[in-house]
């Protein structure tokens, strides 16, 4: 774990502010006693332990509305002084909509988003202080793996023995712990102990590319705060109130980021459930929620225990199971809902037998009048749907798989985005490499190796290397013409931005590059 660079003064918590004398706003109606307590406790550190189905989202959004409604009048609180952190963009959008609904008006100017989106926003303001330009590229996992493969190839690391994806996971775990290469002191069995060295090369290469990965967004912020305390102080003074959702899923870097922000005003409200901490495998640290009271002396803890979603039988089964977990703060969920059916546990030999059993249960339910839309099969991972799908097809039962490949993970979307990135940032090496031969332009492995070697030797981005080499004998005439033509197209498309809409430019790029025709042909085949 990263050495703690932030000391917290152990001064008493700020007094709680309650507006009991004023008429209760309509948005406070229908809150239970615990929910209302969490909403109206505005000042000082607050931990809300929200069990599953206890109205967590409602409490968060109502608390935000209450802050904006009451503090704006009594203490001239402005929306930009509120920092609200969620774990998904969808949750952030829902929070925005529900706060507007509660207040009867839209709210603009507050800092609302995920850890990554908020950190990116902050870093673009101060990019020069961490050695980047404000238009830096954020790499996805596919870009990361390709870049690591290039580095491993240059360092003569066998990719069959030491897969690039494994190295990516190691580096990501270090970043989740807030560790820059210089602070890594753990030994990892990768490339004969060379993982730390490869991590350093990877970070150096990212700087050359004016890029960062998702882990860097938090890591660079921590570095920025440590090296430029005046910047940290600016945000500490700005954010008078901080709200955090799904606190049990925060990793060490996110924890340090949040705690640094909250050190001055200490008006931080974290909502989470230690019983729902399931992401330790990807760096989440449940200890963050368990030590909240020691991090913020005088903190108040409110437990939301009334469940509005599940039946008593389901709650009883879940509560019994979770009692075997030692690392928890403890709460007892209850509900006023009807008893409902009992929870059944059935054992089978394998996935095929499981699918057969579930199929029989579905048929029995349908015979008793239960509609297909009232049934769902939940699986732990996407690959587990296959045997269920095969069985449902055999039985002639209609079904719909929710999920599947995400929009931005589809190959054609990644390709299109790479073209767009090259228009916006002509020196984006990874985007250039992805599309330089898509559609086919005769650019083979040997040509790419020549470009990469020149890029490394000169410490310049790949497109810059290509611009240099198209005027030399290093490339064959056909390659000079092909790559030169593509680079010329990108320059022309970039110039179109001055008098064309973004939609028109994107359409021109995809059509004139030949990508649209290639995609249509592949779909017809």
TrEMBL record:
<feature type="domain" description="UvrD-like helicase C-terminal">
    <location>
        <begin position="312"/>
        <end position="525"/>
    </location>
</feature>
<keyword id="KW-0238">DNA-binding</keyword>
<dbReference type="GO" id="GO:0016787">
    <property type="term" value="F:hydrolase activity"/>
</dbReference>
<keyword id="KW-0413">Isomerase</keyword>
<keyword id="KW-0378">Hydrolase</keyword>
<feature type="domain" description="UvrD-like helicase ATP-binding">
    <location>
        <begin position="29"/>
        <end position="311"/>
    </location>
</feature>
<dbReference type="GO" id="GO:0000725">
    <property type="term" value="P:recombinational repair"/>
</dbReference>
<dbReference type="GO" id="GO:0033202">
    <property type="term" value="C:DNA helicase complex"/>
</dbReference>
<keyword id="KW-0347">Helicase</keyword>
<dbReference type="GO" id="GO:0005829">
    <property type="term" value="C:cytosol"/>
</dbReference>
<dbReference type="GO" id="GO:0003677">
    <property type="term" value="F:DNA binding"/>
</dbReference>
<keyword id="KW-0067">ATP-binding</keyword>
<dbReference type="Pfam" id="PF13361">
    <property type="entry name" value="UvrD_C"/>
</dbReference>
<comment type="similarity">
    <text>Belongs to the helicase family. UvrD subfamily.</text>
</comment>
<dbReference type="InterPro" id="IPR000212">
    <property type="entry name" value="DNA_helicase_UvrD/REP"/>
</dbReference>
<protein>
    <recommendedName>
        <fullName>DNA 3'-5' helicase</fullName>
        <ecNumber>5.6.2.4</ecNumber>
    </recommendedName>
</protein>
<keyword id="KW-0547">Nucleotide-binding</keyword>
<dbReference type="InterPro" id="IPR014016">
    <property type="entry name" value="UvrD-like_ATP-bd"/>
</dbReference>
<dbReference type="GO" id="GO:0043138">
    <property type="term" value="F:3'-5' DNA helicase activity"/>
</dbReference>
<comment type="function">
    <text>Has both ATPase and helicase activities. Unwinds DNA duplexes with 3' to 5' polarity with respect to the bound strand and initiates unwinding most effectively when a single-stranded region is present. Involved in the post-incision events of nucleotide excision repair and methyl-directed mismatch repair.</text>
</comment>
<feature type="binding site">
    <location>
        <begin position="50"/>
        <end position="57"/>
    </location>
    <ligand>
        <name>ATP</name>
    </ligand>
</feature>
<dbReference type="InterPro" id="IPR027417">
    <property type="entry name" value="P-loop_NTPase"/>
</dbReference>
<dbReference type="GO" id="GO:0005524">
    <property type="term" value="F:ATP binding"/>
</dbReference>
<dbReference type="Pfam" id="PF00580">
    <property type="entry name" value="UvrD-helicase"/>
</dbReference>
<dbReference type="InterPro" id="IPR014017">
    <property type="entry name" value="DNA_helicase_UvrD-like_C"/>
</dbReference>
<dbReference type="InterPro" id="IPR013986">
    <property type="entry name" value="DExx_box_DNA_helicase_dom_sf"/>
</dbReference>
């Amino acid at each position: 774990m990263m050495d703690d660079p932030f000391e917290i003064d152990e001064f008493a918590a700020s007094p709680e502010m309650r507006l009991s004398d004023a008429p209760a706003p309509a948005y406070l109606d229908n809150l239970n006693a615990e929910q209302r307590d969490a909403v109206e406790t505005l000042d000082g550190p607050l931990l809300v332990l929200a069990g599953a189905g206890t109205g967590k989202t409602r409490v968060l959004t109502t608390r935000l509305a209450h802050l904006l409604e009451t503090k704006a009048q009594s203490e001239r609180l402005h929306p930009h002084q509120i920092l609200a952190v969620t774990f998904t963009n969808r949750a952030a959008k829902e929070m925005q909509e529900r706060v507007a609904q509660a207040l009867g008006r839209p709210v603009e100017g507050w800092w609302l988003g995920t850890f990554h989106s908020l950190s990116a926003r902050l870093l673009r303001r101060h990019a020069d202080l961490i050695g980047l330009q404000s238009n830096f590229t954020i790499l996805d996992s596919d870009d990361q793996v390709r870049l690591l493969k290039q580095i491993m190839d240059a360092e003569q690391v066998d990719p069959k023995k030491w897969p690039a994806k494994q190295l990516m996971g190691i580096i990501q775990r270090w970043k989740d712990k807030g560790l820059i290469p210089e602070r890594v002191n753990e030994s990892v069995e990768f490339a004969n102990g060379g993982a730390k060295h490869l991590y350093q090369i990877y970070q150096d290469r990212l700087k050359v590319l004016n890029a960062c990965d998702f882990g860097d967004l938090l890591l660079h912020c921590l570095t920025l705060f440590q090296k430029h305390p005046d910047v940290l102080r600016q945000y500490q003074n700005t954010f008078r109130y901080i709200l955090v959702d799904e606190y049990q899923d925060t990793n060490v870097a996110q924890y340090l980021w949040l705690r640094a922000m909250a050190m001055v005003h200490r008006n931080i409200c974290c909502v989470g459930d230690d019983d729902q901490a399931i992401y330790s495998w990807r760096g989440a640290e449940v200890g963050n929620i368990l030590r909240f009271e020691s991090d913020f002396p005088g903190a108040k803890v409110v437990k939301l225990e009334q469940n509005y979603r599940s039946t008593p039988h389901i709650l009883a089964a879940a509560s019994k199971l979770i009692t075997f977990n030692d690392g928890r703060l403890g709460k007892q969920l209850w509900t006023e809902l009807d008893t409902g059916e009992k929870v059944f546990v059935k054992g089978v030999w394998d996935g095929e037998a499981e699918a057969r059993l579930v199929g029989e249960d579905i048929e029995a339910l349908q015979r008793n009048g239960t509609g297909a839309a009232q049934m769902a099969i939940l699986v732990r991972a996407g690959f587990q749907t296959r045997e269920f799908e095969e069985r449902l097809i055999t039985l002639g039962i209609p079904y719909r798989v929710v999920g599947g490949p995400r929009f931005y993970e589809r190959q054609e979307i990644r390709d299109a985005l790479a073209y767009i990135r090259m228009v916006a940032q002509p020196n984006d090496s990874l985007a250039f490499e992805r599309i330089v031969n898509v559609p086919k332009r005769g650019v083979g492995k040997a040509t790419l190796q020549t470009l990469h070697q020149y890029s490394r030797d000169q410490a310049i981005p790949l497109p810059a290397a290509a611009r240099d080499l198209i005027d030399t004998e290093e490339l064959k005439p056909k390659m000079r013409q092909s790559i030169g033509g593509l680079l010329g197209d990108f320059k022309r498309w970039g110039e179109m931005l001055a008098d064309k809409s973004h939609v028109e430019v994107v359409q021109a790029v995809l059509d004139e590059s030949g990508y649209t025709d290639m995609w249509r042909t592949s779909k017809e085949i």
